[in-house]
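cron nightly-structures :: item 1 of 1
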Amino acid sequence: MDSSGSVSDTSNPLSAYQLLFTALSLIPLSHLLAALLLIFLVFLYNFFEIHFLHDFIRAFRGDRVCITASDPDFYQSVVSKCRILHGRYSSTPWLCSPHLQTIFLSIFGSSPPVSYKRQLFRVPDGGTIALDWLRSSDVKYAAFGVNVNTPDNEKTPTVIVIPGLTSDSSAAYIKHLAFRISNRGWNVVVSNHRGLGGISLTSERVYNAGWTEDIRSVVGHIHSQHPESPLFVVGTSIGANVLVKYLGEDGANVPISGAAAICSPWDLLICDRFINRRLVQSFYNKALAIGLQDFALLHRSNLSQLTEWESIKKSRSIRDFDNYATRILGNFETVDAFYRHATSATYVGNVAVPLLCISALDDPVCTKEAIPWDECRANRNVVLATTPHGGHLGFYEGITANSLWWARAVDEFLGVLHSSSYIGVIKQMRKTTAPTPSFSIDQGPYVSVLEDGMVTAVGDEQTDDTMQDLSNQETANVSTSAEVILDKEEADHVRKKNDQPERSEEKDPNPTQATTPARKCTDCLARRSGRSFWLLAYIAIITTWPMVRPALSLLFKKYKYLMPGGSRKR
């Protein structure tokens, strides 16, 4: 009786819980707190994606950089000589997390002392862009406190830097890059976005992730002012997206010798889904949205197109701000339409200059899911370098975290590219390569249907000539006045040009002349298709004969029995 009663008591769920709590009460409180602390640390280790144990097992030697390059000539001439790209990246031990790297760069990151010289550039639509110059002479004599005005060499390379979202020339990572490149003896100019860098908006046009007209105007202006100076462009974050889109739109028509895209979002739709997916990403989403709100409120008086200011103030994500502000200013129907338009991954295939792309696989803002691996691998001018760690624009290295790995890699890449003979090869290829096709549907070929039913495509030569005139018009008329550059003469030039009567186009006396090559090709294909038909018939008979022969034999025997001679013989 007693034994059975004890068994029934232990099988009772309430008794089991009582035994469990009794066992826990016997454990010392310090041990319980230590276990809870351990569980909390494991949670933080995975939540913040810390890789300290990974680095510790590897003795803090870092991980190798993964390089994706398809052109052997480009690789042998330039990429193979970049020791930093072929080495390892080892992050700062106490910044062994992508979130620590990104937050430290934004809040606590130190930067070398630089002193810019500002130049205001006025674009044709009335907007103003602040160009902050850092020349090699300014950095060279900065340590001695002497300002020496040395004459600039017209052949000194110039690097144009495009900052990220809501960033300007005062950002720590921009100063790291500018200081390192200027120490090489090159000139650096930071092209600040409209409304940033302490400059107010002078037009209703506002920059966004897909707006390439500003960088196109800046590149054209600097190239016209220094035609013999090699031009390089470096874009970071959103600036990298703008850079790649600009290079893909203009193809071989850009006056640039090389470029570098750092931590580009590539596909804004994928990045939008990613940044709204996890809890930790929501902090970045809200922080970036607050920066955009401050920008809009600062220039509220110049943004008359925006009406829902209460919704803009309540925006808690980038998508909310883009819905109430960016898409309206950019004349887009939906936010997704704007993201599709601004995506740079679709333009990678048309890049015609050497381009270095650097991305971290643990980037907490621009996910690795958006990296166009196949497009980069298919383009011979693109080299993609990825690292397992680094965060978003962080890449801190060294025990004191006073250096950015990607800044060293870009500086080395541009130096090797400039000193190599590959630039001459690219320029020669531009002369022999057909012009890059346009992305506009309105510039597609016309279709001509002849009387005999022949359909031919006739190119829109008039559109190409017009576009060429417009491109020449944009870069040919730039007037400089001390520190401010105004384009008033350009408007007068356009007005005079529009007043001139258009020349009448010569009509083609033989409208079917354009279809002659097409007819020849069609006749040739017809003759070949005739021979191919008999060849395919012969192959079909040979391959199917083992199966057809028994059927024919059986059919012949039945037919033989039905014949009169066959029946008499039987």
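cron nightly-structures :: done
The domain at 63-267+343-430 is CATH 3.40.50.1820 (Rossmann fold).
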